[in-house]
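Notes from the 1:1 (GR / supervisor)

We went over the backlog. Supervisor wanted to see one worked example end to end before approving the batch request, so GR pasted a single chain during the call. The sequence is below; no edits were made to it. Supervisor asked that the structure be written out right there so they could see what the output format looks like.
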Amino acid sequence: RRCSGSLNLAALNCSADYAPGAVLVKDGTVYPLGDPLRQPQTLLSSLTNPLLHLSDKLNVLRLRVAAQRKTTAQILQQPDLPTLTFLRQWGFSELAIASFFRPFYGGIFLDSALETSANLFWFYFKMLASGRIVTPALGMGELTQQLAQGLPAHQIRTNYPVHALVQDGDHVTAVEGANGERLSVSRIVCATDAASARQLLPANCHSLLPLKHAL
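Structure output shown during the call:
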């Protein structure tokens, strides 16, 4: 619903030719993990997948039922803890965490340690279990292109070197360009090389190291 409120999905010509589930790869061998509730024909291959114990597969089903019974608001407002702690408390084996949750959700969160909010894990798990994955016909870059088209021309600046971030206490309130101009901000995302980030960001900020996983 949020996407349809911010994007023109018809113009993106989205494709939904993705089967629910995942494909796990180990030592060059492919192990499918389907969604038997939506595609019953994947039940046998999912049950025989050796990268998750039978107890893990039952826990996935139990988690799915629990997630579907919760609203998004309930999920995001419930007491929180790290995702890895949550998975272990839920009873998932280290094999399942290493083979599936760490590469898959670690890729989503850009956090292979799975220290990210378990409530966010609940949210993404619920969305993936109940919805469809779609991609624009011309690629994911079309999302930013379409969003940019709805902004006034002066809102986007390119070739604009940033000299410093201006702080007020623990909050960044403005960015200072190399020309001395200051632009007020309410939030900032610093997506740059590590050396530039070290120069710009305060020492107490939280950073993420993006990793690429083969699924």
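Supervisor's comment: Residues 19-130 form one domain.
Batch request approved.
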